[in-house]
Specification:
alpha/beta; binds pyridoxal-5'-phosphate; 13 strands; 10 helices
Length: about 375
Amino acid sequence: MNVPFLDLKAQYKQIKDEVKPEIDFVLDNTCFILGPKVKEFEGNFAKYCGVKHCLGVNSGTDALTLALKAIGIKQGDEIIIPANTFVATAESVSHCGAIPVLVDMDKHTYLINPELIEQKITKKTRAIIPVHLYGQMCDMDKIMNIAKQHNLFVIEDSCQSHGAEFKGKKAGSIGHLGCFSFYPGKNLGAYGEGGAITTNSDEYAEAIIKLRDHGAKQKYYHDIIGFNSRLHGIQGAVLNVKLRHLDSWNNARIKNARLYEKHLKGSKIFPAVEHKNGKHIYHLYVVQIPNRDEAAKQLNALGVQTGIHYPIPIHLSGAYSFLNYEKGDFPETEKAADKILSLPMFPELTEEQIKYVCYELKRIVG
Ligand SMILES: *Cc1c(COP(=O)(O)O)cnc(C)c1O
């Protein structure tokens, strides 16, 4: 049997007839950059997330960078981020000339451990970026409390959690700003690069409108030094269509996670723990297994594609060697990096495929 890690073709087949006329609208009206379809999507996604503003940008990385710029992050500022995240979280901090200060993950949820945040706060700390990794939101009660006490900004890296919830609130609606990626493989994915920033603040929204478009709100009146980071019309059109399906796709992912649980029961294979306060939308289904590399190789030979998110923690990667962290500094993140395996996860996955993956994985692990 063949079980891909992700099957974007299956999804495209399902929505082809909805998407094509929307893309045609953009072509017929030559509204390629921002424009009516992006505006429509921004309104719809803001409403979906339960926030006042949504601004489309060119990627999730740009969303994070522009959000940090909007709150005035500059050279020498310190920003707290989890050690267990995709490198883009750290890159956005670096692109502002600021310093990423890492915090180890919680060994159950794989998310930033809120208990370890306060000891990392210094006079230079300006913000915390909780990352809602794998589709599950961080403990936002604890994080917002710490931020309030120390007068820090909170920027939610929601790039893996479109539609995830914490105590009934959507990802991207609790911190000062929320950042989303629409990379094609994300739960809400464009047909190219894309990203967005959500916020309830008129002030930050205004700043981002300028930052994404060369520092100008009105063309050629450049008030600040900005970027070129505007969401494309075609992506707005595609995202509008796909947003209508997001909840049903997320629910299908949740159903698949339950099936994995059922078919892995009684084995030594454990998924990351889902906490009770939220809605985990399973961007990734991550398990810990012994002899991970060998197991992944054998699965691959059996037609099962897997992934590792992520094999090298930020502090041990070449790009961030200048931070002078050492092996052992973030023990939970390091332990996980050697054992985690992301199993196939997408809405169209069948129970037959899940059963096959679990059967072979149990056989390999023994
Ligand atoms: C995908 C991702 C990003 C970056 O998004 P891009 O659109 O690829 O720039 C940032 N943070 C996390 C956690 C991500 O998964």
